[in-house]
Amino acid sequence: MWRLSIVLLAGSVAASPIPVPSESNGDLEPRAIQCSIPNVLSLSYTARKLAITAKQATFLYADGIGGGPHSPGGVGGITLIAADSAISDSELALQVANEASDVAAATLSIPKYNGLKTLDDYARLYDGGLWKNSLAPTGLYPGMITNYTQDLLFSMERLSFDPYAVRRLFPDKDQLPFAVDDVIVQDVTGAESLQKLFESGFLFYADHRDQGSLEHTEHFAAACDAYFFISESSKNFLPLAIRTNVGSNLIYTPHDEDNDWLLAKMMFNVNDFFFGQFHHLAATHYVFETGYLGGKRTLSEDHPVLVIMDRLRYGALGIRPLAVVVLFREGGSIDQFFGYKGSSAAEFAAKLYSNGYAGDVQNNYFLTNLRRRGLIDSPIGLPLKHFPFYEDALVNYNAIHDFMTDFVNSYYTSDSAIAGDPELQSWLLEANGPAGSINFPTKETMKTRAQLVDLLTHMAHLVSSSHHAVNTNQLITGAGSLPFNPSALYQPIPTEKGGITNLAPFLPPPSQCVQMILNQANFARPLIAGTSRTMVHMFDDPVTLGRLNKKTKDANERFMAAMRAQSAVIKARTFDENGLSQGMPFVWQALDPDVMPFSLTI
Ligand SMILES: *[C@@H]1O[C@H](CO)[C@@H](O)[C@H](O)[C@H]1NC(C)=O
Ligand SMILES: [Fe+2]
After folding, report:
1. Which residue ranges have their beta carbon within 6 Å of ligand 1?
2. Which parts of the chain span the membrane according to its record (predicted)?
3. Which residue, by CA, sits nearest to atom 8 of ligand 1?
4. Where are the domains of the chain?
5. What's the confidence (pLDDT) of residue 17?
6. Of the residues 91, 458, 491, 521, which has the fewest C-beta atoms closer than 10 A?
7. Domain covering 2-165+256-486+504-571, topology
8. What digits encode the pLDDT tens for the residues 365-398?
């Protein structure tokens, strides 16, 4: 049903190029007036206040579409959703049209793959330019097919395209979640025991046990938790053990037979992929939307901060309605391709929002979040030798931070101007109150311009690096790629080890493979690469910049230069003499600012 409607959509706009942001930025009534922060002493202040009150009467809160925190309501809110849906739906339709020849070619090729009887047959699903439109411009990440059996590839996935689950265990506040035989620990890690590894700060953990209580589809998934460690000798970040938490609750390690251990890693991947996708919905979409809604209701349309937030919102409000139709509904793509049902996925995302794990604002600032999980600046153990998500996102983050610093300082000439801006102050109250943001700054935690810079930088980080590291092009190019990263298993979780001669039956059968890859392709936006929809152009919009001051325009020039320079770095990335890139046996290019979109239209 949804495919039909998308095909119809595709038919209507297939010929048009990616919409130019400045022509369709979803503003209700684009304004030419120069932005300013409110001046309570000026004659026009009363009129400005009245305009905000009038806006509030039409811009309301409604139940979250598809669950989770509020969506916009009222005539004003619904108009914005419609404007954003027009953007996100048309980008999807363009991608569906772009995929059509890939789907036809892939369907025709299935018989060539020996009926998909072995894992190697699955690896050939991307052979010879198949999916070339959907996979452009990077293709499947080099190494994903050739190197997927390596433990280092498995563990480094956690530090690149699925970086929000793993954490270091801290002996002063954590306990060991499960035991592993010391003989195995010694052999795999070189450390004396699991306890020693833990005490010295070399042990890491990812916990997906909470998926065990979700409602299953007709496919299969475990609810794995897993240990990782830093090797004292190689300094590599590697897997130590995976526990299934279902059936006979087996604990797998690299000491098991090859097929058992490979299957364990695939079982973990199923859970981590599910987590990554529904965590992203809460941590990026929900958090940005609620922060935005609070601002939209309290900041004047002439406030520079709202103008920036409106730019960052480009198309974003169209996603939740689309997710209901495509993903969450009974029989939608989650029911079809995941181990847990769409309805549970929606609840899972809502819970990750409301319990703060994904929903907290300040606690999830880029560096704060990584520090809390012991992934950077750890007081114990060794630092991670390579952390690709951090390395790449940091460059984008710093460029955003520089831009926001110049922007904020150009409008607020002192820290006291923050407390002196009644609109900004009412945003803080609104966000922490009716808007439903969690852990949003308050007047106590936003006293300085630097703190406003941090908040705005975070919002821009959420709609860019944070999102596109796990979603968008990531599904088809890596995080959902077969054979190693399936979204569900097609055989029951084993209750004993040994005797598995072939893992192919655990993967989707030929009839479902093309549909599964196609579903991932629907999230990709290769047509955006190199256009004015990329991260390079995050602020580069004539309508937006036209209303902002010269210092902000100059800051945008510097931002664009920094992003272009980083794009060149990422585009040049290849394997080094050890067959590694950023310490990984695959080449990861997700956060290329000239490829990734600047907003949340997926
Ligand atoms: C990973 O795969 C590529 C080929 O795709 C190869 O050149 C490289 O050496 C491999 N890396 C390792 C560590 O095996
Ligand atoms: Fe998304």
Report:
1. 142-143, 146-147, 575, 579-580, 585
2. none
3. 579
4. 2-165+256-486+504-571, 167-252
5. 62
6. 491
7. Lipoxygenase-1; domain 5 (1.20.245)
8. 999 999 999 999 999 999 999 999 999 999 999 9
Cα 573 from Cα 577, distance rounded (Å): 13
Cα(576) to centroid(ligand 1), Å: 9
Cα 397 to ligand 2 centroid, rounded to whole Å: 19
Ligand 1, atom 13: nearest CA belongs to which residue?
A: 579
Checking if the pLDDT of 444 tops 70, the result is yes
pLDDT one-digit tens code per residue, 499-519: 999 999 999 998 899 999 999
Distance (angstroms) between ligand 2 centre and the Cα of 404 equals 24
Contact 116, 513 (CB under 8 A): yes
The closest residue, in CA terms, to atom 1 on ligand 1 is 143
Cβ atoms of residues 275 and 208 within 8 Å: yes
Q: Which SS3 state, helix, strand or coil, does residue 532 take?
A: coil
Q: CB-based burial of residue 218 (10 Å sphere; 0-12 exposed, 13-18 middle, 19+ buried)?
A: exposed
Tell how far the Cα of 225 is from the centroid of ligand 1, in angstroms.
28
The secondary structure element, H or E, covering residue 566 is helix 550-571
Buried b (16+ CB within 10 A) or exposed e, 145-170: bebbebbbbbbbbbbbbbbbbbbbbb
Assign residue 600 a region (left: φ > 0; alpha: ψ between -120 and 50; beta: otherwise).
beta
Residue 30 has a pLDDT of 60
Mutate to test the pocket of ligand 1, among 141, 145, 147 (most ligand atoms within 8 A of CB): 147
167-252 architecture in CATH? Roll (3.10)
Q: Which atom of ligand 1 is nearest to 142's Cα?
A: 5
